[in-house]
Design goal:
The chain has helices at residues 4-22, 28-44, 93-98, 100-125, 132-148, 165-171, 177-184, 224-238, 294-299, 369-378, 411-417, 424-443, 494-497, 506-521, 531-542, 571-574, 588-597, 608-612, 642-648, and strands at 67-68, 241-244, 247-250, 283-284, 289-290, 326-334, 338-345, 351-357, 389-394, 400-405, 409-410, 446-447, 456-458, 464-466, 473-474, 568-569. The protein is α+β, with helices and mostly antiparallel strands. Among the domains are: 327-406, Phosphorylase Kinase, domain 1; 409-632, Transferase(Phosphotransferase), domain 1 (Orthogonal Bundle), CATH 1.10.510. The strands form six sheets. A five-stranded antiparallel β-sheet has the order 6-7-8-10-9, covered by helices on one side. The chain has a three-stranded antiparallel β-sheet with strand order 11-13-14. Strands 1-16 form a two-stranded antiparallel ribbon. The longest helix has 26 residues, at 100-125. The structure holds adenosine-5'-triphosphate.
Length: 652
């Protein structure tokens, strides 16, 4: 039931979201475009489907006894709280031809973004020094690639007096449909120098240093022109676009297949998988990390400029600084897609985290798509619960780094070193911040798709921030089905495990549910080693779903497999209301939230907004914020940042 506090929260959320839209760099252009896009996708969302704020499986008694898995819908969610789901459009060849005019508009913002991304990265890395001729060639390659992918780019930017999309299209044979598009749609041609990426007086800076890394000390500080030419040429050859049967490609050499982070070439191991998964890319059993499938090659095209504030946006055309501007302090961690270092800005003394983009799989395949996607998304976002990318820098060896705000801990590491689980008020603090970050993503039509404890960072001020957007994607107007092989196994939603290709924000909410359970219990909830084992563990705990509690379940590709038949939901047994043996406990409302996050039916799973307004957050013990934690005293203290907590609970 909505309380005064809930209302206050809701009002605040709406206000902030309006503010975000209005703060786009392009002012009203961005705002209106994003709003239009949202509207379109609102229309495409699933409506009229029965929603429930209470999943039948949660019919648990406080005693912790198991109840029969059945559908008990008691709360109807107002129609405006629709799940944002992506209507999947199968990309048949005839559709491509027939519906080109219709599809070009939704596609262009994303395509603009990928071309912009390529330009950004290539421009950043080449220090914006490409000659006019080189630019023509490079951009024409992009245009041709786009054309081959049947996505005309009417927004293709002019770079430093370069060539507009129209000029390039005509000059290089472009795409026939361009004229057709222009007949129907008058689209403002945007100049990248007036975009969010540019600023007046942009000029490349090149400072080299020999203290960063012995391996990358190949050249001493060069004369800028010489350095730039060499570097520029080298990098331009590494970033180009081509198209093959899989769709858009960014990489060197014509016709080479996209590798990115999502390439098959990364898939060295293949774990036992369900039959229906065959045909999709493999995942690394060691890291539990999945590799993006074909849709990800293409999906980068869909990334639209988010409705984020401009406060910290990375100016990609500024000309990237050298990594030698930083003093490397130590290696923090190494993930699937990058090595993360702690470093100090020599000029400002600021401590940052530098994530080096891994290029080592097959350098010829070009810049990893996941990194391009991550840079694109992170550099556009501004939210207290999303890690802030300060700039992109590079070394002398074409190594590209993201300089991010430094966060002292990640949740996984923190929980491993903690002796006791988080207190309830700490869990609430962390959950609130996590949900706020996820809300920001979903409000901006981005699915994170890899929420897990190692991607949740915490700083010494108790602030939580989501990182690792390598698997993120913008959703809403997909051209192909999504791959179900996203989200690290332990946090992967059942619909993904069962092979759905139509998924929504609900997949992130499932991950949030797994994280909440882990925060409370101090250990992962479902720890499968394979997809089959993962599903099995879920079914054993939550009960085997059926068509009654999850309409559409039986149509999922994986539902035909022989799974354990467990008619009972045993979740409450894992999280009882009271315990004398030290089990993690949850009050009724805490358990209600967890159950709703772990609802089988994605349509019934709680949305981020509903979760933020859940009564658990306003019942005692409340999250408190009067402490700046630092390990080892972090343990047992509350970490919700003071100002945000005061704002959120000012009514109490
Ligand atoms: N801004 C940061 N400050 C401090 N540490 C960070 C920061 N960003 C990342 N890390 C650390 O580096 C690790 C790996 O980072 P990240 O998840 O971005 O890389 P990845 O290669 O994409 O990882 P994954 O294998 O999860 O996909 C994180 O788990 C965290 O421990």
């Amino acid at each position: 039931m909505a309380t005064g506090g809930v209302d206050l929260l809701r009002r605040r959320d709406f206000r902030s979201s309006e503010k975000e839209f209005n703060h786009g760099n392009d002012g009203s252009l961005v705002a209106s475009r994003v709003r239009g896009y949202r509207c379109r996708r609102e229309n495409g969302s699933v409506s009229g489907s029965r929603r429930s704020g209470f999943c039948g499986r949660e019919a648990w008694t406080n005693s912790g006894e198991a109840s029969k898995v059945e559908d008990v819908d008691v709360v109807q969610v107002p129609p405006e709280n629709k799940r944002k789901i992506s209507p999947i459009i199968w990309d048949r060849e005839e559709d491509r031809k027939v519906s080109f005019k219709k599809r070009v508009l939704p596609a262009t913002p994303g395509h603009e973004s990928v071309v912009k991304s390529v330009c950004q990265v290539s421009e950043v890395v080449s220090k914006c020094e490409a000659s006019e001729i080189d630019k023509k060639v490079e951009l024409s390659t992009q245009v041709e690639a786009a054309a081959a992918d049947d996505l005309v780019e009417p927004f293709l930017p002019k770079i430093s007096g370069g060539f507009s999309s129209e000029e390039l299209l005509h000059q290089y044979g472009g795409v026939q449909q361009q004229d057709q598009v222009n007949e129907d749609v008058k689209i403002e041609t945007r100049n990248i120098l007036t975009s969010r990426w540019a600023s007046e007086g942009d000029s490349p800076q090149h400072v080299s240093d020999d203290v960063w890394n012995a391996d990358s000390r190949r050249s001493s500080t060069p004369e800028s022109g010489e350095f730039q030419r060499e570097d520029s040429a080298g990098y331009r050859s590494a970033i180009s676009c081509s198209d093959d049967e899989d769709g858009f490609h960014i990489g060197s050499g014509s016709g080479s297949r996209c590798s990115g982070s999502g390439s098959r070439s990364r898939s060295s191991k293949r774990e036992p998988s369900l039959d229906f998964m065959d045909g999709y890319d493999s995942r690394d059993a060691r890291t539990n990390q999945v590799y993006c499938g074909e849709e990800d090659d293409d999906e980068l095209l869909q990334i639209e400029e988010p409705a984020a504030s401009t406060s910290h946006r990375v100016n990609m055309l500024q000309g990237c600084r050298s990594v030698f501007e930083y003093e490397k302090l130590n290696k923090i961690n190494e993930g699937t897609y990058g090595i993360v270092y702690k470093a100090k800005d020599k000029k400002s003394g600021e401590i940052v985290a530098l994530k080096k983009v891994k290029m080592d799989v097959n350098k010829d395949d070009g810049f990893p798509l996941s990194s391009l996607r991550e840079i694109n998304i992170l550099s556009s976002f501004s939210h207290p619960s999303i890690v802030n990318v300060k700039e992109v820098v590079m070394d002398d060896d074409d190594g590209v780094y993201m300089a991010m705000e430094y966060m002292e801990y990640d949740l996984k590491g923190l929980m491993e070193t903690m002796k006791e689980p988080f207190s309830v008020s700490e869990v609430k603090s962390l959950m609130l911040q996590l949900l706020e970050g996820v809300k920001y993503l979903h409000d901006n039509w981005v699915l994170h798709r890899d929420l897990k404890t190692s991607n949740i960072l915490i700083n010494k001020d108790g602030e939580l921030k989501i990182c690792d957007f390598g698997l993120s994607r913008q959703y809403g107007s997909p051209r192909k089905p999504y791959t179900p092989l996203v989200v690290t196994l332990w946090y992967r939603a059942p619909e993904l495990l069962l092979g759905t290709k139509e998924y929504s924000t609900a997949i992130d909410m499932w991950s949030v549910g797994c994280i909440m359970a882990e925060l409370v219990a101090k250990e992962p909830l479902f720890r499968g080693k394979t997809e089959v084992e993962q599903i099995d563990k879920i079914f054993r705990t939550l009960g085997t779903p059926n068509e009654t509690i999850w309409p559409g379940f039986s149509k999922l590709p994986g539902s035909k497999a022989k799974f354990v038949k467990n008619p009972y939901n045993l979740l409450r047994r894992k999280f009882p209301a009271t315990s004398f043996i030290g089990s993690p406990v949850l009050t009724d409302s805490g358990f209600d939230l967890l159950s709703k996050l772990l609802a089988y039916d994605p349509e019934k799973r709680i949305t981020v907004e509903e979760a933020l307004n859940h009564r658990w957050f306003v019942e005692a013990p409340l999250p408190r914020s009067d402490f700046k934690p630092s390990l080892p005293v972090l343990q047992g203290k509350n970490r919700y940042p003071g100002s945000r907590l005061r704002e959120k609970f000012s009514h109490l």
